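Q: Start with the shorter request: fold the first protein.
A: Done. Sequence, then structure:
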Amino acid sequence: MAKTILHAAETRGHAQHGWLNTYHTFSFANYHNRDRMHFGVLRVLNDDTVAPKMGFGMHPHDNMEIITIPLNGELKHEDSMGNGSVIRYGDVQVMSAGTGIMHSEFNNSDHENVELLQIWVFPKQKEVTPRYDQISLTIADQRNQLQQILSPNANDAGVWIHQDAWFYVGLFDNDFSADYTIKQPGNGVYIFIIEGAANIEEQVLNKRDGIGIWDTQHISITATSPNTQILVMDIPHDGLK
């Protein structure tokens, strides 16, 4: 029987810095919960809203796979590798920090908030050469199906990272059901409800709720509201919460 752990939206860590309103599914910055350190190799799942023209100045990372998914607005990125770009809803950005990078992230608008998910995954190999990539998705490809947005394979759909992980996003009609099969033994799945609501493994989840599932191969997902948007993260778990 599948094992599960539910993280309701209201149980997340929260910080309001004026220019930044942020929620932490796992321990981060001043939010520390020893029972919420990670789920397998999934270390950070932050839900950020950044005020116009505000953001994070140049700061370092190393030995982490960092995935950014904009939900609304525009995010301007610059880094020590010479990359400069603006990412929007429908884009996915990845950085393999490896031996070390510096980067900044700012709201590119002077009047509109930017909303984003930032996700950190432990890599399976340390001290790799830093790299950056981004893609633009066709949102229609998410309608009533799971669109792959990330994998371990450079030639596969979406971006790739140094980890045996696969990410999918689906945008489901009310009552639409999908079955998901975990990619490889030892992996679990963390599912995050971006918008709407769903029934997953007989548990009701609403907007910004998350659920970790392991010790199973197949997972059933049924949307229970219109335009339910779901992020599925299939990641090495090995029995770790």
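Q: Next, the second protein, separately.
A: Sequence, then structure:
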Amino acid sequence: MASFHHTLMKCHLALQREVMAGAKKLGLTSGQPKILEYLTAHDGAEQKCIATHCEIESATVGNILSRMESMHLIERRRRDGNRRSIYIYLTDDGKRAAATMEQVFAAAEDRALCGLTADERAKICSCLNKIYANIAGTEV
């Protein structure tokens, strides 16, 4: 029987491959799909919030955002006269890419969870959230 970490790693890599295959069709690179997903729910977020939520180093997020800006997926703006903070917004192209990625994520999840009941799906998510909280030292 495979160990927990090996099984989890295999699941993550298989899901990542499927998601990135869909992302590649949009010309997206690693990190960009989850930033699009985050901005769909938090349009106008600060870079540091994006980095924290997506679990990417702030400097790396800056590089990813620069590429996304050159692809016209996002725009950076100041708001409320705050000269220090820059907020990240989806452009119309970014919203379309995010909507397509939402479909890619949903299809990958459906494939991964095929044959599981709604209760089993909920239990898996609950357990994974507890495992993450244990590792990250946070509360669920």
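Q: Describe the second briefly.
A: The mean pLDDT is 94. The longest strand covers residues 74-77.
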